[in-house]
Amino acid sequence: MTTETDAAETPRPTAAQRKWLTRGLTQPGGKLPLFDETGRRVSRRMVEACVAHGWAEPWFANPLMPAWQVCRLTQAGRALNAAPRQPDPAENPAEPQLLL
């Protein structure tokens, strides 16, 4: 049974994390990309945060670039994309309402 405090303590991915994790859904084995759509390397901090939350896991060592961690989606990472997304107030602050 989930309570309101459990839901508040459950970490939710940021928009960038969710976008990165979503890209693994279409890849063989759930492989997560090392680069974004524009060719920039994915932030190491973002990768580490997703691994720490259990949404991604290290998969294998990259022989060409050992410092780059190759990861894949976990079941928890897949579940994030299957569950309906709850709006995050920090991502889309409410517009001020004018009182007339």
**Main sheet characteristics:** 2 strands, antiparallel
Number of domains: 1
Please count the beta strands (DSSP E, at least 2 residues each). 2
Strand content: 5-15%
Assembly context of the chains: single chain
Which segments are poorly predicted (pLDDT under 50) over 5 or more consecutive residues? Answer: none
Helical residue percent band: 25-40%
Produce the secondary structure layout:
Layout (H helix, E strand, L loop, with lengths): L3 H6 L5 H9 L20 H9 L3 E6 L7 E5 L1 H8 L18
Antiparallel strand pairs: 1-2
Structural commentary:
This protein is of the alpha+beta class and 100 residues long. It is built from 4 helices and 2 strands. The protein has a single domain, classed as Orthogonal Bundle (Arc Repressor Mutant, subunit A), CATH 1.10.10. Strands 1-2 form a two-stranded antiparallel sheet. The model has no long low-confidence stretch (mean pLDDT 82).
